[in-house]
Design a protein that fits this description.
The structure holds two protein chains of two kinds. By secondary structure, chain A is an all-alpha fold. Chain A is about 75% helix and about 0% strand. In chain A, strands 1-2 form a two-stranded antiparallel sheet. The longest helix of chain A has about 30 residues. In chain B, helix 2 runs antiparallel to helix 3, helix 13 packs parallel to helix 18 and helix 16 packs antiparallel against helix 18. Classes of the chains: A mainly alpha, B mainly alpha.
Chain lengths: ~475, ~500
C-alpha cells in the first residue's frame, strides 16, 4: 500500500474527529503520533524496489522512502517535544497537528514526484499548510506578521517556480522528468532559463541566500513549536527535491546550474556565519545558522556527483538531529510561565542546570562542526566530496566560514558556562523534550563510533 | 598482541570521567579527586608497561590496532613507535600532577574540572597514538573543547578573550590541514600513514600540502608570528590548564612535524628549510627579548616556551640525527620544566593571588624549600649542564652547526638571552629585597605541592645526568626517519 493513501485517509478521519468531538486536541495529537508511526511502518514493510504509477509521474524508490522516513521521524520528535509548549501557549487547536500532517502529505508528493505538475501540487499543498502554521497564533501580532510575510514572499517564489515549469514544458514538450532530461541540452537556452527560475523557487523553500530574507523574521515571529518544524522538516523535503531536480531533469546541463549552486552555497555559508554573530535571540540565531548549514549541504550538491548528493543527504540528516536537539532545549527554558528565547537568558545556566548546559554544549559544538561530534562528520563528508571534484576554493571558503561560525556558537557557550547565573528555570515536566535532547546528544557523541552508518544507508539510494 | 592496549590507554581516562560524573559528593570532592587520581596513575603505569614492552630495536609501529571505520576506506588505526611512546608517557605523567595541583588551586566546580582534564588526556593520548590522518585530526581538534572550557570557566579575569583567541586561532590553523588531509586521500587513496609513507606524494602537490600542514602546526607550536594566542591563554588559564598547555599541547605540533610533514613531504621539507630556520631564529631571539620585558611571571614563562619551541623547530628541520634527537629531547624536557615552572607560579599565586614579579622578592628568606626548587627549575630552563634542558639545546645546536652556521650562531645567542631572562626572573622573585609585607606571612609548600615539584625536579635532574633511557628509545626510529628522508630525496 502506498503510504500516501493511508496518510490522506487518516487525515480525513481525524479531521472528522476534530469537528465532531469538542476539546479533542489531546486525542488528535495522540492519534497524529500514531498515524506517523503507522506510516513509518508501512514504508518500512514495503519492498524497497522501484514502483511507478500514474504514467510514471509518481515514483516510489529507496530515495523517496529515505526522505519520507526522515520527514516522519523528525516530525514525530518535533511534534511530541513541543506538546507542552503548545498547551502552555494556548495553541492547542485541533487543526494544529492535522495541518502538520497535511504538509507532510505535500512533502511526500514532492519527494516522490517524477512530473512537474505533481511536484508543483505537492509543493503547494506543503506551502499552504506552512502559511497557516506560521500564523497559527493569530492573536499574536508577530506571528501574524510572520505568516503574512511568509505568504507573500513564498507566493512570489511559487509564481517564479511555476513560470519556470511552464517554460520547461514549452521548450521540452513534456512534464515528465525523464523525458525532460532527454530533451535538455546546452543549446536549449530557453530550458536553461527555466532551470534558473526553478532553482530560484527551490532556493527560496530551503532559504538559501539570496532568497533567505523571510527566514529570520518567520523563525522569530512564529511560535517556537512551529519554528522548530520550519527549521527541520520543509528543509529536508526542499533539499530532496533540489537533489532530485539535479539528478534527473537537469543532469545534462550540469555546468550551467553548477555555477549557480556554487554561488548560492558560498553566499549562504558566508551570510550564515556573519549575520548570526550579532543576534541576541536564540531562534533568530538558529535561523541564520540554518542558512549557513544549507550552504554546506548545497556545497555537496554543487559537486554534481552522486557522492556529493550523498554527502548532502548525510549532512541534512545530521542537521536534523542537531536542530531537533537545539529546539528541544528551548522548550526547557520556562520561567514564570513564559518560555525564554534570548541568548542572555541562558547566562550561567551551567550552575543550576548542569545537564541542560552540557547538552547545549554538545549540540552547539556539533553545530560548529568540532570533532569528534556528529556535526564534524557531516562537514567532513561534504568536503571529501567537494575536494574529489577538485573544487578547492569552495572547500576553503566553506572551512573558513566554519571557523567564523564557530565564533557565535562559542559566544553562546560562553554565556552558558562563563557568565554569572541570573535565571533559574522551572523544573520541567516536559519529558519528551528532555528525551529528544538526550537522544540527540547521545547520537551526536556516539556518532564517531560508527561514522559510516548513515553513508551505508545513503549509498543505496542512487542505484538507478 | 591481541589485547587492545592502546585503546585501553586512550579510553581509560574517558571511562573514569563517567564515574566521576556519577559520583555524588557535594562538599569535599574527595571521591572525584581520588577516582581521577587513581585512574590517571593507572593510565601512567599502563603507559610505562607499554614503554617497557616496546621493542626499541625496530622502527616499525607496534601494538598496531586496526578497525574498519568509515566505509572501509578510513581505518581506525593506532600504533606506537620509539618517538610517540615518549610523548604518551609524558602525557600520562603530567596528568596526575595536574590533578594533584588542582587540589590546592581549583576551588569551584572541581568535579567538572577533573572531568575536563581526563577527557583532555584521552584526546592527547589519542593524538600520539593515531596512525591515520583523519583520526589524528579528530583527536587534535577535539582537544580544543575541554581546553576551551578549562580556560574559560576556571580562568582569570580576561579568560573569555583568551579562550576565544585560543579556540579560533587553532581552529583556523587546522581547517587547512583538514583540506590537505582530504586532498592526500584523493591523491593516494588512503589516509593510513604507513601506506602514505610508501606511496610518494607527487612533487607538485608536496609544497602546498606541506604549507597547509604548517598552518596548523605553526599555530599549535606556536611559531612566530602566530604565537600571540599562547601568552594570553597561559596567563588566563588556571595552573593545571597552563601545565597541560605548555607540557603537552605544544608538543603535538612538534610531533606532527616528525610524524607527518617530514616523512610524507620530504621534498617540501627540504625546500622550506630556510623558511623554518628564519621563523625559528626570529622566535628564539624576538620572544626572548619580549620575555625579558615581562612583568607577569606566567607571561614570561609563556614567551620562554615560544623561544624553546623555536629550538625544537630548528632542530627538527636541520634533518640531522643530532638535530632531531635534540628536538625530541628538548620537547620532553621542556614538558617537564615548563610544567614545573607553571606549577611554581601557581603555588605563589594560590597564596598571594598575584602573578606580578613586582609583588614578590626575597622569597628565599621566607619559603626556602620552594625557593630551592624554583631555582632548580629556572636553571634547567636556561639549559644548565646537568639538567635535562641542557642536552636538548646542545644537540639542537650541534645539529644546526652542521647545516647552517649563521642559524646556529644566532640560536646560540638566544641561549644567552634565555639565561638572562630566567636569571633576572629568579633574582627578582627569589632573591632581592622584600617590599611586600604579605610575603612575610607566606606559607611554604605543603605536602601535595612537594610531591609534585620534587617528582618533576627528580626527573629533570635524572634525565640531565642519564639521558640513555630516552635516547635509546627513539634512536632507531629517528635513524629510520632520516634514512627514509634521504632515500626519498635521492630518488627524486
Amino acid at each position: 500500500m502506498f503510504p500516501e493513501i493511508f496518510l490522506s485517509l487518516s487525515i480525513f478521519c481525524i479531521l472528522m474527529v476534530g469537528v465532531f468531538i469538542k476539546k479533542s486536541f489531546n486525542l488528535i495529537f495522540n492519534l497524529t503520533s500514531l498515524i506517523i508511526i503507522f506510516t513509518i511502518s508501512i514504508i518500512l514493510t514495503n519492498s524497497n524496489n522501484e514502483e511507478r504509477i500514474f504514467l510514471d509521474s509518481f515514483i516510489r524508490d529507496p530515495f523517496s522512502n529515505y526522505f519520507k522516513i526522515l520527514i516522519l521521524l523528525s516530525t514525530l520528535f518535533v511534534l511530541n517535544s513541543s506538546k507542552n509548549f503548545i498547551i502552555d501557549n494556548k495553541l492547542d487547536k485541533f487543526e494544529y497537528p492535522i495541518i502538520i500532517l497535511l504538509s507532510i502529505l505535500g512533502m511526500f508528493f514532492m519527494v516522490s514526484s517524477n512530473d512537474l505538475i505533481l511536484f508543483y501540487l505537492g509543493l503547494e499543498l506543503q506551502s499552504l499548510s506552512l502559511y497557516i502554521l506560521a500564523s497559527i497564533d493569530r492573536d499574536n501580532l508577530r506571528s501574524t506578521e510572520s505568516g503574512v510575510k511568509y505568504f507573500v514572499l513564498s507566493a512570489l517564489s511559487s509564481g517564479l517556480l511555476l513560470y519556470g515549469c511552464s517554460l520547461l514544458y514549452g521548450f521540452t514538450g513534456s512534464t515528465n522528468f525523464e523525458l525532460i532530461a532527454e530533451q535538455l541540452n546546452k543549446e536549449n537556452t530557453g530550458a536553461v532559463f527555466a532551470m534558473v527560475f526553478i532553482l530560484v523557487g527551490l532556493a527560496f523553500k530551503i532559504s538559501a541566500v539570496p532568497f533567505h530574507m523571510w527566514t529570520p523574521d518567520v523563525y522569530e515571529g512564529a511560535p517556537t513549536s512551529i519554528t522548530s518544524f520550519f527549521a527541520v522538516v520543509p528543509k529536508v523535503a526542499g533539499l530532496a527535491l533540489l537533489i532530485k531536480f539535479m539528478f534527473v531533469p537537469f543532469s545534462n546541463i550540469l555546468l550551467e546550474w553548477q555555477t549557480i549552486i556554487i554561488f548560492i552555497s558560498i553566499a549562504s555559508m558566508i551570510l550564515g556565519a556573519v549575520a548570526a554573530m550579532i543576534q541576541k535571540n536564540f531562534k533568530r540565531l538558529l535561523a541564520y545558522s540554518s542558512i549557513g548549514h544549507i550552504g554546506y549541504a548545497l556545497a555537496g550538491v554543487a559537486t554534481g556527483a552522486i557522492s556529493g548528493y550523498q554527502s548532502a543527504i548525510v549532512y541534512i540528516s545530521i542537521y536534523v538531529i542537531m536542530n531537533i536537539g537545539a529546539f528541544s532545549c528551548l522548550y526547557l527554558l520556562k520561567k514564570d510561565g513564559q518560555y525564554k528565547e534570548n541568548i542572555s537568558d541562558l547566562s550561567g545556566i551551567s550552575k543550576k542546570h548542569p545537564l541542560l548546559a552540557i547538552s547545549l554544549l554538545i549540540i552547539l559544538f556539533s553545530l560548529a562542526g568540532v570533532p569528534p561530534l556528529g556535526g564534524f562528520f557531516a562537514k567532513f563528508y561534504v568536503f571529501v566530496a567537494v575536494l574529489e571534484k577538485e573544487m578547492y576554493a569552495l572547500a576553503i571558503i566553506g572551512l573558513i566560514t566554519t571557523v567564523m561560525s564557530a565564533f557565535y556558537y562559542l559566544k553562546i557557550i560562553k554565556t552558558i558556562y562563563f557568565d554569572d547565573s541570573i535565571n533559574t528555570f522551572e523544573p520541567t515536566k516536559n519529558r519528551t523534550a528532555q528525551f529528544s535532547v538526550i537522544a540527540s546528544c547521545t547520537i551526536l557523541i556516539t556518532f564517531f563510533l560508527y561514522p559510516s552508518i548513515l553513508n551505508n544507508l545513503v549509498d543505496t539510494l542512487f542505484v538507478s | 598482541m591481541n589485547f587492545p592496549i592502546l585503546s585501553t590507554l586512550i579510553f581509560l581516562p574517558l571511562i573514569s570521567s563517567f564515574f566521576i560524573l556519577l559520583s555524588k559528593d557535594k562538599t569535599t570532592n574527595l571521591s572525584s579527586i581520588s577516582i581521577s587520581l587513581f585512574s590517571s596513575i593507572a593510565t601512567f603505569f599502563l603507559s610505562l608497561f607499554l614503554w617497557y614492552s616496546l621493542d626499541i630495536n625496530t622502527s616499525e609501529f607496534q601494538f598496531v590496532e586496526e578497525k574498519s571505520w568509515i566505509n572501509n576506506y578510513i581505518k581506525f588505526k593506532l600504533g606506537v613507535d620509539g618517538i610517540s611512546i615518549l610523548f604518551i608517557v609524558l602525557t600520562t605523567f603530567i596528568t596526575p600532577i595536574c590533578i594533584i595541583s588542582c587540589i590546592n588551586s581549583v576551588k569551584v566546580r572541581v568535579k567538572e574540572f577533573l572531568i575536563a582534564i581526563l577527557i583532555l588526556e584521552t584526546f592527547m593520548i589519542g593524538v600520539f597514538c593515531s596512525l591515520d590522518l583523519v583520526i589524528f585530526y579528530l583527536f587534535f581538534e577535539a582537544g580544543l573543547i575541554p581546553m576551551f572550557l578549562i580556560i574559560g570557566v576556571w580562568g582569570g579575569p580576561r579568560r573569555v578573550y583568551s579562550a576565544f583567541k585560543f579556540f579560533l586561532f587553532t581552529l583556523l590553523g587546522s581547517v587547512l590541514m583538514l583540506v590537505a588531509i582530504i586532498v592526500i586521500y584523493w591523491l593516494t587513496g588512503t589516509t593510513d600513514i604507513t601506506q602514505i609513507y610508501e606511496v610518494q606524494i607527487p612533487k607538485e602537490y608536496q609544497n602546498i600540502l606541506w604549507l597547509a600542514f604548517l598552518s596548523s602546526f605553526a599555530v599549535k607550536m606556536p611559531m612566530w608570528p602566530v604565537h600571540t594566542w599562547l601568552p594570553d591563554a597561559h596567563v588566563e588559564a588556571p595552573t593545571a590548564g597552563s601545565v597541560i598547555l605548555a607540557a603537552i599541547l605544544l608538543k603535538m605540533a612538534g610531533y606532527g612535524f616528525l610524524r607527518f610533514s617530514i616523512p610524507m613531504f620530504p621534498i617540501a621539507s627540504e625546500y622550506f628549510t630556510p623558511l623554518i630556520y628564519t621563523l625559528s631564529i626570529i622566535a628564539i631571539i624576538y620572544t626572548s627579548l619580549v620575555a625579558l620585558m615581562q612583568d607577569d611571571m606566567k607571561k614570561l614563562i609563556a614567551y620562554s616556551s615560544v623561544a624553546h619551541m623555536g629550538y625544537v623547530t630548528l632542530g627538527i628541520f636541520t634533518l640531522t640525527k643530532q638535530g632531531i634527537e635534540g628536538s625530541i629531547y628538548q620537547m620532553i624536557s621542556h614538558g617537564l620544566i615548563s610544567a614545573a615552572l607553571f606549577l611554581c607560579v601557581g603555588v605563589v599565586y594560590d597564596r598571594l593571588h598575584s602573578r606580578m614579579i613586582s609583588t614578590y622578592g626575597g622569597l628565599v628568606n621566607y619559603i626556602p624549600k620552594y625557593s630551592f626548587l624554583f631555582l632548580i627549575f629556572a636553571l634547567a630552563a636556561l639549559g644548565l649542564p646537568g639538567t635535562s634542558g641542557f642536552l636538548g639545546e646542545f644537540l639542537v645546536l650541534a645539529g644546526a652547526f652542521q647545516k647552517s652556521f649563521l642559524a646556529a650562531m644566532l640560536a646560540t645567542f638566544g641561549v644567552v638571552l634565555g639565561a638572562a631572562y630566567m636569571l633576572w626572573l629568579t633574582k627578582r622573585v627569589i632573591f632581592g629585597v622584600t617590599n611586600n609585607s604579605e610575603i612575610k606571612k607566606i606559607k611554604d609548600i605543603n605536602k601535595s605541592e612537594i610531591v609534585m615539584l620534587v617528582t618533576l625536579a627528580f626527573f629533570i635532574l635524572f634525565f640531565g645526568f642519564y639521558p640513555i633511557p630516552l635516547m635509546e628509545t627513539f634512536n632507531v626510529s629517528v635513524n629510520s626517519l632520516i634514512n627514509n628522508y634521504e632515500t626519498a630525496l635521492i630518488t627524486n
